[in-house]
Amino acid sequence: MEKEKAAETRGAAVRVLFVYGGGHHSPITPYMRMFDSMAGIEWTTALLPQSAGMLKPGLEEKYDVLVMVQMMGSRWKQAEFSEEQRKAFADLLKKGIGIVALHQAIATEPAWVESPRIVGGVWRNEPYEVDGRPYPKSGCLHDTDILVKAWKPDHPIVKGIPEFVINDELYLDIYKADDNVPVLVTDHPKAKGRKEIAWTRTYGASRMFYFQLGHIPEKIWAHPQCRRIVHQGIRWAAGEAAAQ
Ligand SMILES: [Zn+2]
């Protein structure tokens, strides 16, 4: 993989761009503290929709990984993204850049049909379709204890992470693409199907890792195991072997 070689030759920190959209899921301080705690990471931020124009081919020269709590669709703030911006973002992923998507990054709007293919999941507050198939309205369960457990303990993103229980929001009845590779699962009785709460996939030349937790950023992104999952996810998405 070209990016892998590039990172090795550079021998430098993984360059992260944190992409967020404001609102209750992304007060920026908890993320800043989390990134500051990570060895081998350099980071800066981009606020959407204002900075949407920078998410285009060429960005892969400046950054190795985009950590995104907001993608190119929004329900909460009615952020507007043009077709051109969405296409440029997909073109960037086709060229290759790592993606770590968190929590609400799977919430999008029907007009952005590429979103489920990129992130492999959909949360919507009304019934929706993916590739012509209908899905019911999604839900959420707040303030619930969630067991977090590796699907395959030797996966680089979860290596060394013990099982743990954390209180957060669980998304219910979300679309999950069949070709997602599960990374973390729960045993929560309200979770259905394969019960994965984190998965990977590829889109174009990009590695994508999605982690569903993060409703209360101050709590989740201060939690040592959640930080470690994101850190190892960043390294995996950048094409490196994960931290031991
Ligand atoms: Zn939430």
What is the structure about, briefly put?
The protein has 244 residues and is α/β, with parallel strands linked by helices. The chain has helices spanning 2-10, 28-36, 83-95, 115-119, 217-220, 224-237; strands at 14-20, 41-47, 65-68, 98-102, 121-122, 128-130, 133-135, 139-150, 164-172, 175-176, 181-185, 196-203, 206-211.
Question: What's the SSE blueprint?
Answer:
Blueprint: H1 2-10, E1 14-20, H2 28-36, E2 41-47, E3 65-68, H3 83-95, E4 98-102, H4 115-119, E5 121-122, E6 128-130, E7 133-135, E8 139-150, E9 164-172, E10 175-176, E11 181-185, E12 196-203, E13 206-211, H5 217-220, H6 224-237
Parallel strand pairs: 1-2, 1-3, 3-4, 4-13
Antiparallel strand pairs: 5-10, 6-7, 8-9, 8-11, 11-12, 12-13
The protein binds zinc ion (ZN).
Please explain how this structure is put together.
The protein has a single domain, classed as Rossmann fold (3-Layer(aba) Sandwich). It contains six helices and 13 strands. It has helices at 2-10, 28-36, 83-95, 115-119, 217-220, 224-237; strands at 14-20, 41-47, 65-68, 98-102, 121-122, 128-130, 133-135, 139-150, 164-172, 175-176, 181-185, 196-203, 206-211. The longest helix is centred in the C-terminal third of the chain and has 14 residues, at 224-237. The mean pLDDT is 91.
Helix count equals 6
Uncertain stretches of 5 or more adjacent residues: none
Q: Could you give me the name of the CATH homologous superfamily? A: Class I glutamine amidotransferase (GATase) domain
The main sheet orders its strands as 2-1-3-4-13-12-11-8-9
Cofactors and ligands = zinc ion
Number of beta strands: 13
Fraction of residues in H or I helices: 10-25%
Q: Which CATH class is shown?
A: Alpha Beta
CA radius of gyration: 17 Å
Please outline the major beta sheet: 9 strands, mixed
End-to-end Cα distance, whole Å, is 21 Å
Structural class: alpha/beta
Name the beta content range.
25-35%
Q: Outline, from the CA principal axes?
A: globular
